Amino acid sequence: MNSNILFIVVDGLRNDKVYGTNKTSITPNLDLLLAKGTLFSHAISSSDGTRTCVGSILTAQYPFQSGLNTFHNYQSATKFFDLFKKNGYTLAGTLPDTEFWITLSENFDTKDMIPKPYEYLFGGTGEKILLQLDKLKGLQPWIYYIHVMDLHKSVNYALPEKFKDKKFGESTYEKMISGIDFWIGKILEKIDLTKTLIVITSDHGEFIPISSIDQPISYMPSLVKFGQKIKKVTPKKLQPTGESTFVKIRNSLVPLRKSLLKKKLSVKDMRTLNERGTKFGWELFDEVVCTPLLFSGYNVKSGNVINDQVRQIDIFPTILSIIDFESIPEDIEGESLLSLINGEKMIEKPALIENQLLDPDDTDIVIGIRTSDYKYFRNINNKNIKLRLFDLKNDPQEQKNIASEKPEIVSKMEDLLMKYRKHDTSPLITENQDEYDEKIKEELKKMGYI
After folding, report:
1. pLDDT digits over 156-172, tens only?
2. Is 351-446 a CATH 3.40.1190.20 domain?
3. Domain locations in the chain?
4. Which of 105, 291, 429, 434 has a Cα-to-Cα distance from 99 of 20 to 30 A?
């Protein structure tokens, strides 16, 4: 019998909050899966935005290769699920109710779409997952994709009372990880690990504001309260204009707030207030692009932690190798990591990174490349704008931009970047694209990106 596959993406989960000295959450169930599996501690995401990242996972290609970005080509993400279906798998999902996942799951056999504002595990999603697992017992083999939104900044739910104690983590973020782990335990009660491959990863990392601020740089409580009062008395047809005005006012105040906070906080603390995936948090620090990747259960070597750099685009090729799947697509950039899991050496591949698009025609984004030695990124159209180079061996916290000091390394990294980006694919433009783009922009607004 083919292995079942439980594929869990925890939105915004940072690698250093799953394993290592920076972890303060209590995660007995994740720890159990690690004891029975292999953790890659440095899986590099392709971007700082969910659709772009998940698109890379599900196509095993970078956005510029698949054409799948924030606004375009969602349909290409079905590639591997279509392959599983052709080979007799039942497709299941518990996914956010937005355009990307609606498109992805059109041919799923069973699914729950998480409503907006996003429900979290303790708000009903956890129980829905358990019911789906009960249903799947008679539909094997299956692949079940669960996208957990509990850590996302747009999910504004209070911590469950039982996880508010400091022992569950130093921050609200880490306490919520302890809560997510509780539900992973519930899920494991329904799973036979000898017949199921479990994959747990993230789309991207996250900046975690210091506890004394506990909010990103653009969050201003007094302004939010004022905006909410105005919205209540504003006619519905005028609300989009009002929201746009609110955003402009907020954005104009961010530089002032930043200058005030700089007088009180260290450079290190200021960085925690960055906002991933927005114009305020465009820098692709490891907090944002370094994610955990755990394979456990069926046919996986136990108790293995691998610190080699790997890439998001390697995930599905690895899944296919672990379950000994015969048909592997040829049009992919990713490669199987099974050799690393089994203790063999592999040549490290550079990981390409880029900002998510906030507008279909956005040119104010950065593209870059990461190796285990250096990280390099710059404006997509101008090599001299937003130019950053970090020496990851000697400066793992990425505190000093050495681009001006090391032009020879900038040149080498630029050549490497261009070598890998030479096969750039233009996105497929569909009918009613303008209307579709506006719908995506509205989703991004609700999630706090624009």
Report:
1. 667 888 999 999 999 88
2. no
3. 4-207+282-341, 221-271, 351-446
4. 291
